[in-house]
Amino acid sequence: MKIRRLLTSVIVLAACGWAAYLVGVGVAAQQRGELAGMARLSGTVTAPQAFRAAQVYLRNVDKNILYMVFTSGGQFRATALFPGSYEVIVRAKGLESPAQTLTLRAGENAKLSLAMGPGQGVQPAPPANVTFARYAEIYPQGPGLQVIEQGCMRCHDENFIPARPASEDVWKARLGHMTGAELNVRDSRAYNEGALAGRVQWFPFSTRDKEEFIAYVTKHYGSDAKPRFVRAETEVPLDEAALGRAMFMEYYLPIDAPGTGSSSPEFAKRGRGIRWGQDVRFDAGGNVWLTDRGYPHRLVKLDPRTGQQKDFPYPDVSNGNHDLTIDRFGIVWAPEHAGLKPDGGKRILGFNTKTEKWEFQVPADPNDEIRNSVKWMQSMALDSKSNLYVGWIMGGAITKYERATGRVKVYPISERGAVPYGVIADRNDNIWIALWNSGKLAKFDTTNEQWTEFAPLTFPSHIRRLNVDAQNNIWAAIWNQGRRPGKLAKLDQTTGRFTEYDVPLWTAQPYDVNPDPEGNIWFADSPTPDRVALISRFNPRTRAFVFYPKPQFAADSPKIQVTREGAVWFSPRGSRNQPAISVLYPDMDKITTLGAFYQYGPPGNPWPSPPATQTAQR
Amino acid sequence: MTPRTHGTSAASAALVLFLVVAAVSGISYVAPGTSYVAPGVGYAASGFSRTMYAQAPRSVKSGVYTVDQARRGRDHYRKRCILCHLDNGQGRGAEPEIVGQSLEREGDAEAPAVAGEPLLTKWNGKTAGALFDVMRTTMPVGSAGSLSAQDYADVFAYLLELSRLPAGAQDLPAGRDQLDLITIER
Question: Which of chain B's termini has less CB crowding within 10 Å, N or C?
Fold first, then answer.
């Protein structure tokens, strides 16, 4: 009997193994087929002076796709290149090459030599009227500096104040804005207004502090001062060996024809006149979806395997958009943000990726429970039942949209003046929120509707985004503050203890954090005027960081998403001229497909989703 | 005595009264369609002559506000406008863009320049009444209309002063009808 049972088990296991093998072979063959028609390029870069990790830009002119790889020991290589015409240029600090053109055919493995000479290099020229100086020179010791470093710099980086010299009247008005001087007679218009008001801030902003602040800024950044930036005092540590294996791709958004879209008379001025990528997510079919926050607002679908893009205008193209998420039924959820109508009614919008129609327009505060006249939503998360929880960044609450019943309920956040930024769900269906106003993490227990707040070791601080790993730990990114470095913070839910890790980087502003299938934590980091924008990896086991300079030096990227293969997708949001959907492949040799797939499918949790119920599809 | 005769006499009396007042006060009345070119001329405290003066179409170059009014306007500007439009109405466009700080300014106005060449270019050929209406119905952001009509007119006067337009002997009026007679010119 025992032998029979053992034999049965062996046969079942063998069958499962064979089936898995066949599936694997099929997938691999399909993906090999996808990549078989691609080309490769490798070569050598020379320069009259030493350089490290030069950035080689390969732009596919036909498809308007950019590839960027790094040199390692003067050598570079790129793979998975769409056949077509290319322009190639290489840049390093103070060095660049002339552009070369070449055509790559399917399956080709081409070689190229590039020579750099003195040039602008990777760093764009700063504005003509701005000079750089050391931190200590721009911020001399004296009364008032403490207010700036502990009050202002919790959110503003060190360039914000010296870049905007002004009269005492202007500085007083700015201080009045931050302390909410007018909020006793009108509602707040922006979530930063009143952030330093007496009862909601964590710095003792006494009358003396205010006087010292005004005296300090008027003396050092008054009407007669010239705008200044703080010079980065340390270089970004570059691991050439790791960078030599990495490859970025940027699928540029088509620019609207003159007089149309974002260049139309309606939006050219009010809407900044550009397309503006914000947030990316993957559907179950490997497509990448993007919120374009330019005006008119658009939802963009990219098939990375072909480079083909398709745009879908929002129901109201100027009522604000920001984040998105995709549920397991293929609905893209996108709440309305401020837009050009900050005091307009705001809805949770749902787009069906199968019918390609906006099928949900749900009023998110139907009973007007959020009393501020100006209110808008931003981030959201899905629980295991596909219920949606959306944060009112301007309003201090979350809305739950119950999929099975269509019921909407608003829950005010317990902390006064709460500004909910990032919103995520953990494996127990708790909703976690990064409180921008204080630097706390707030947990909403969906079983008893109770709030619990957690203060990291570094508190107060500036946190925008958070996430959860496969072990249900909560990760958050803490921005630097003056001389205090930026940090990654981990909350172990089993012990309730925080652990923090310093980011070894000048002015680290770690934004979104996201785990990969190997347990690494990836984060996006905003640039400074002379420090490149980065996608960065932290290995919690070895505590090692690797920094990947992005193709667009100056474009911040707030949000990142990681595929099952460890590719990191983002949009270079801060780009004025080259809005795009972008991806970093940390190891180009491991690319099996250009499609973007979550490890466990939408909505992208690092654990398998429980079985879907039909009722949730309402 | 017929009503007609009576009317003629009344009109004649009014004309005489006007000429006397005008002579005493030194006012010059300029017919519609011509330019008023006597800023600083003593302006009589006569309701009659003020009405005639105010109804004359004229340019912002002809001294349509007073120095005192601009001082009052500057005080309002410092309290309600300077946060966004900065010193001298230069607007945020004068600030350098800082790499890494996103384009995001949700909830913040773009705050264009509101004085000098940018103002005069944008509003060239339009009436002061049109600009006044925009100020009154949109500014300050979040509390539009929260100043009195006179306060808005005072701020307007300060913007004209910042734009190096000459002051005159008479306050910029706060009534839309009167402001519509004033044309903004570069």
Answer: N
Q: How many domains in chain B?
A: 2
Summarised one tens digit per residue, pLDDT across range A85-121 is: 999 999 999 999 999 999 999 999 999 999 999 999 9
Q: What is the pLDDT of residue A282?
A: 98
Digit-coded pLDDT (tens) for A332-389:
999 999 998 888 899 999 999 999 999 999 999 999 999 888 999 999 999 999 999 9
With contacts defined as CB-CB under 8 Å, which chain B residues touch A533? 100
CATH 2.60.40.1120 fits A39-121, yes or no: yes
- Is B61 a member of any domain? no
Report yes or no: A397 and A377 within 8 Å, Cβ to Cβ.
no
Q: Higher pLDDT residue, B36 or A491?
A: A491
C-beta of residue A214 within 8 angstroms of C-beta of residue A171: yes
Interface test with B, best of A159, A224, A341 (most B CBs within 10 A): A159
- Residue range(s) defining the domain that contains residue B132: 67-183
Domain boundaries, given as residue ranges, for chain A: 39-121, 131-230, 240-604
Residue B62 counted as domain residue: no
Q: How many CB pairs under 8 A join A and B?
A: 95
Partner-chain contact B99 A170, CB within 8 Å: no
ipTM score assigned to the predicted complex: 0.80
Residue B24 lies in a domain: yes
Cβ atoms within 10 Å, residue B94: 16
Q: What residues does A94 pair with on adjacent strands?
A: none
Contact B98 A574 (CB under 8 A): no
In this structure, the answer to whether residues B117 and B172 fall within a common structural domain is yes
Is residue B3 over pLDDT 50?
Answer: no
Q: Between chains, do B98 and A529 touch, taking CB under 8 Å as contact?
A: yes
The answer to whether the Cβ–Cβ distance between A574 and B100 falls below 8 Å is yes
CA distances from B25 to A332, A389, B28, B42, B44 (A): 75, 73, 9, 6, 5
B25 and B79 share a domain? no
> What pLDDT shows up at residue B111?
85
Same domain, B93 and B40: no
Indicate if B178 and B106 belong to the same structural domain: yes
Q: Cβ contacts (< 8 Å) between A556 and chain B: which residues?
A: 100-102
Quote the CA–CA distance of A607 and A612 in Å, as a whole number. Answer: 14
CB–CB of A439/A455 below 8 Å? yes
* Residue range A585-590: mean pLDDT, rounded: 97
Of residues A315, A370, A374, the one with CA closest to residue A341: A374
Instruction: Provide the pLDDT for residue B1.
Output: 32
Nearest-by-Cβ selection for B100 from A169, A270, A527: A527
pLDDT at A111: 98
Q: According to the model, what pLDDT value does residue A417 have? A: 86
**Superfamily holding A240-604:** YVTN repeat-like/Quinoprotein amine dehydrogenase (2.130.10.10)
Facing residue for A170 by CB, picked from B82, B98, B143:
B82
* pTM score: 0.87
3-state SS, residue A471: coil
Does the beta-carbon distance from B103 to A124 stay under 8 Å? no
Whether residue A174 and residue B83 make contact (CB cut-off 8 A), yes or no, is yes
